[in-house]
Amino acid sequence: MTALLRTEGVRKAYGGVHALDSCTVEVEEGSVAGLIGPNGSGKTTLFNVITGYAKADEGHVYLGDRPITNVAPDRVFALGIGRTFQLTRIFASLTVLENMLVASPNGRAAARRRAMEQLEFVGIAGHHAALAGTLSYGQRKLLELAYVLVADPAVILLDEPAGGVNLSLVNTIADRIRELNASGKTFLIVEHNMEFVMGLCDRVTVLDSGAVVAAGPPAIIRTDRRVLNAYLGEDLAEDDPHPGQQSVEQP
Amino acid sequence: MARQIYQAIVDGILVGGVYALMAVGLTLIFGVLDIINIAQGVLVILGAYLSYELSVRIHLDLFLGLLVTVTAMFVIGVVIQWAFIRRLRGRERTSMTLLVTYAVALIIEGVLYEIYGPNPKQLNASYVQSSVHVLGFYLSYIYLYGFVLALALVVAIYALLYRTRFGRSVRATMQDETAARLIGIDVNRVAAVTFGVGVAVTAAGGMMFGATNAFNPNSGYDLISRLLAIIILGGLGSIGGALVASVFMLTLESLVTIWSPEWAIVVFYAALVVVLVIRPAGFFGRQPVRAQ
Fold it and tell me: How far apart are CA B148 and CA B154, in angstroms?
């Protein structure tokens, strides 16, 4: 497997605060990668740097072999990286279908057909004529996923896809991600819901204070004491009788 | 007296059409780019001078000349956005654009003054001075054509915004520029084209203004305060609101003129205040009018 998305030594500071510090993350082609860490650890900043919304002070971002460091956001999207947001950023006064068509690179008929296919895939095709602002929060999450899919990106960055939605919808979103992954899509997911991450991801990277503190398969990550201390909390620590006994890749 | 009132209403509606032609570009630019283009009044006058040149030098009909002047003004709008506005970013952007567009207005006014001097000009054509008698009312052809042109332009802008891919990109950018960028919309292009369209529409307003009023390079300053009042009353960013507010304000002014021409201009702005007290977002605004 080769890395389809790679950040190398990315640094990003806001004033005197180091949001990212020599951050190196790899996402293998066809995988579902997780990115976890406490609030303020730099996860969303890393998404912003990858998608060109924030400029890296140092370091590099690659899509395959292509350097995309500090490339404009619309260009990054055109090159094949789509993203969703922690708080959904749909276009509320456009209809659901119009939201889809805005993101579509195709001509009119093809765009409409693909848009409807994606809406059916996420289960909200029945709302295509409704204003997006009338959707429930969970439906907005699904719409955001659908309109990222409509451009057929190679890599999809999901920022807390399970955040603030009910359990049934969390399972729906997880199922859709699995199906898309089975068809070859690559994912990088930021999520606080550990069951969601551990059940879905092939590999998890842990950030703390802008730096990678561990990276590896979920089963190993969840037993690492530094990770437990930094992020996972007592509940998961107590679930495991032998925390920290397996080896974790060092960043 | 009743007849005078009816004629004043008809006149107000038709003159309102002329003002709508000048105001829709201003409200479009505000709605998409969140800036008040102070240069819009002077750009109207520039449009009038372009029509004057085509009419006097190559005897091109005023309405046919719009094919040239609208295109030219579109290019001028794109250049202004690219050269002066595109670089303004951050929290002070909206207030900075007030200063920048005011500077643009001064530059254009200076150039026009150098070329044409202070003496007023007026556009002329056979239909400018003639009128038709319908149901007891005298309707000026130029105002009738102008009103139809205003309706056509409002419909065209709506079609552009709601029936095209570009229009969807514009509306998405209006709502969330960041999200628009991240789903592949080139917001710089959207901004440049929108500014260009807003200025291009002004060419039609300029031709109509020049055909119905004498103008010189300074005339833009009288216009901009009226245009701002109209787009605020219509609801900032609302194209249809600009049309309705133009017709409302000019009809009111026309009615008051029957009794007191001196008070007509006062009533124009008093109506703005009264409506905003009752309806702070204007006729069709979705949010309270922002302090600029």
Answer: 10
- Domains of chain A and any CATH numbers: 1-80+154-163+188-251 (3.40.50.300), 84-152 (no CATH)
Please give the model's pTM, rounded to 2 decimal places. Answer: 0.81
Give Cα B90 distance to the centre of its chain.
27
Determine, for residues A74 and B178 on separate chains, whether the beta-carbon distance falls below 8 Å: no
- Over residues A123-177, the pLDDT tens digits come to 999 999 999 999 998 899 999 999 888 888 999 999 999 888 888 889 999 999 9
Chain B stretch 218-277, residues whose beta carbon is closer than 8 A to a beta carbon of chain A: none
State the virtual CA torsion across B69, B168, A101, A51 in degrees, nearest 10: 100
In chain A, whose CA is at the least distance from the CA of B189?
A74
Domain spans in chain B, listed from the N-terminal domain onward? 18-218
State how far the alpha carbon of B75 is from the alpha carbons of B69, B81, B83, B227, in Å. 10, 10, 12, 22
Q: Kindly report, residue by residue over A209-231, the tens digit of the pLDDT.
A: 899 989 999 988 888 877 777 66
Residues of B in contact with A157 (CB under 8 A): none
Token digits of residue B38: 């102070």
Among residues A196, A156, A34, A163, which one has the least CA distance to residue A88? A163
User: Is residue A105 less than 8 Å (CB to CB) from chain B?
Assistant: yes
